[in-house]
Structure formats: C-alpha cells, structure tokens
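Appendix C: a fully annotated inverse folding record. The material below is reproduced so that readers can follow the format used throughout the book. The structure is listed first as tokens, followed by the designed sequence.
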C-alpha cells in the first residue's frame, strides 16, 4: 500500500478540498477518551482516521497536555494506518499549547509562555499534593502552561470529588498568598489591583489551574487559524464536548460567523439556550444513558456514514 502524498497547497491528502463540508473540533476527555479508563475506543480511532483521510479536518481542543494526546490519540491513530498525507491539529492546555501530527509523528510543540501559571505556584501545588492529597490525586507533570491535579483511576469518583473540594479551597488560598487574583466558579477573589489573573476550574476528574485567558474559545480561534494557514475554510463546524465550558467552542465560532452545531455528550447538566443548534444522543434516537465516549462514538460513526457512505 502506498501512502498518497500531501498536496503542497493544503498539507492534506491530494484530494483534500479547500472547503470541506465539515470540520470537527473535539474535546477529548469525555467525547473521545473515556473519563473512566482515560483511553480511546478502537472504533473511535478508526472513524477519526477515516474522516481525516477523507479531507474532514479533525482538530482536538483539550485541556490535556500534548503528551496525553500523543499517547492516547496520536499513537493509536498512526497504528491504525493513518495515510501519509493526513495532518491532524491538536490544541492542548485550553489553547496555551498546540502541535500538529502526521503518520511520521508530531511536529514542533508551540507554547504561549505568557499564558503559563508561574512556576513558583506550580511548585507549591506539587508539594501540597505530595504531602496531603497523594492518596486521591496526582500532579500532572506533562503540563507546560497549566497546573492540573487529577484523580487516581483506582479511587472512587465520589471520594475524589469530596477531597477535591478541600484541595480546591487550598489552591485558592495559595493563589491569594502568591498575590494573584483568582476565580473558582462563583467565588471571585481579585488581587490588590482588582484583577483576576487565574482560574481554578474543577472538572469531574481533575482540577485545572490556569490563566483566565485560556479556554475552549481560544482553542477554537487557533483551530480556525491553523486551517486558514492551509487554505482551508470549512463550510460548517461540529464542536463536541461533555462540559458547559465546551460550549465556548461553538459560541466563538458562531460569534465569528462560522456555521456550527454543538454536540453535548453529557447533557445531564441541562442544555442551555443557544443561538445555534445543540445535539445530544437523543437526536440520534439513542437513550439518555448513552453518554461520554459512547455518545462521541455514535456521532463520529454517523458523520462517517453520512459523509463517506
Ligand atoms: Mg471533557
């Protein structure tokens, strides 16, 4: 089997359209990777490879590190037989870090260092986790701009969530001791200049501590830029996520006049009213119990069927 060569104008395969019918902008934890096992089902990998190879831009927009994407998404996609001309973009750490990969592996890693949490604060969090929270969570050493502390897989989620509240309270206090303004959910604690610099963002399996300038909207803007640099303007976007914060992808695209529908694979928090369509597994005729990567897999399979037959 010979891999098709990349079209020099687009970097994609020789048949990649400059205006593909769809582009996919995917949160990873939840819709792609299981929040339980943290890995990706083989059928999801196969559908991602097939869609990307057909010229549908597949772009990840995640809070995860580039190392996580390389291990859990890139390596299995390459192992599944990604053709030579296929280029995948991964926007990591909510827009602070990004890279692209082909069957030959990852290209250079880009880091916006202005968006990084100060190292001294990260060191204090690392020490706090080691001393007081190591039985429930671990410090993610692969992050380059964010500070993330994640639930151990073997700890029951309910026990983790209880411990996470204590951790988050200490992380907030530590921010204030470092003189930074900080926000967590409804709690706002500006610094002495009345500014908010950082956010403590609890997810169902981790706490992310990050610049308030990071977010899924920043990731969406980077996604559009990365495609534009290749001469690609998708006719429409599908954004997929499992958290309220993931709607920021579709919010940004809609606000910037891109056609978009958002897929919520964990609509239990309620589906907010939006000026664009929001889809859930129920729109595929599936029961409400189909969530997370089961719902993600169903949507990917549906797009593969609709676009590739
Ligand atoms: Mg998620």
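Designed amino acids, in order:
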């Amino acid at each position: 089997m010979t891999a098709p060569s990349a079209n020099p104008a687009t970097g994609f395969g020789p048949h990649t359209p400059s205006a593909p019918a769809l582009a996919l902008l995917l949160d990873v934890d939840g819709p792609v990777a299981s929040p339980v096992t943290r890995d990706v089902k083989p059928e999801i990998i196969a559908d991602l490879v097939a869609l990307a190879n057909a010229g549908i831009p597949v772009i990840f927009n995640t809070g995860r590190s580039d190392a996580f994407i390389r291990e859990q998404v890139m390596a299995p996609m390459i192992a599944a037989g990604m053709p030579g001309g296929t280029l995948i973009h991964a926007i990591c750490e909510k827009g602070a870090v990004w890279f692209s990969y082909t069957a030959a592996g990852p290209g250079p890693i880009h880091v916006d260092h202005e968006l990084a949490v100060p190292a001294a604060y990260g060191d204090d969090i690392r020490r706090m986790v080691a001393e007081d929270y190591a039985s429930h969570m671990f410090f993610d050493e692969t992050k380059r701009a964010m500070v993330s502390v994640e639930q151990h897989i073997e700890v029951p989620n309910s026990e983790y969530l209880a411990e996470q509240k204590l951790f988050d309270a200490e992380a907030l206090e530590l921010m204030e001791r470092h003189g930074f303004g900080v926000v967590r959910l409804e709690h706002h604690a500006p610094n002495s200049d009345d500014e908010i610099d950082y956010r403590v963002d609890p997810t169902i399996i981790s706490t992310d501590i990050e610049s308030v300038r990071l977010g899924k909207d920043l990731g969406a803007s980077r996604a559009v830029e990365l495609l534009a640099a290749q001469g690609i303007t998708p006719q429409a976007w599908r954004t997929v996520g499992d958290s309220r914060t993931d709607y920021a992808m579709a919010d940004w695209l809609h606000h910037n006049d891109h056609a978009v529908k958002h897929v919520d694979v964990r609509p239990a928090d309620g589906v907010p009213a939006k000026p664009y369509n929001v889809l859930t597994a129920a729109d595929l005729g599936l029961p409400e119990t189909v969530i997370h990567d089961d719902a993600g897999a169903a949507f990917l399979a549906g797009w593969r069927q609709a676009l590739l037959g």
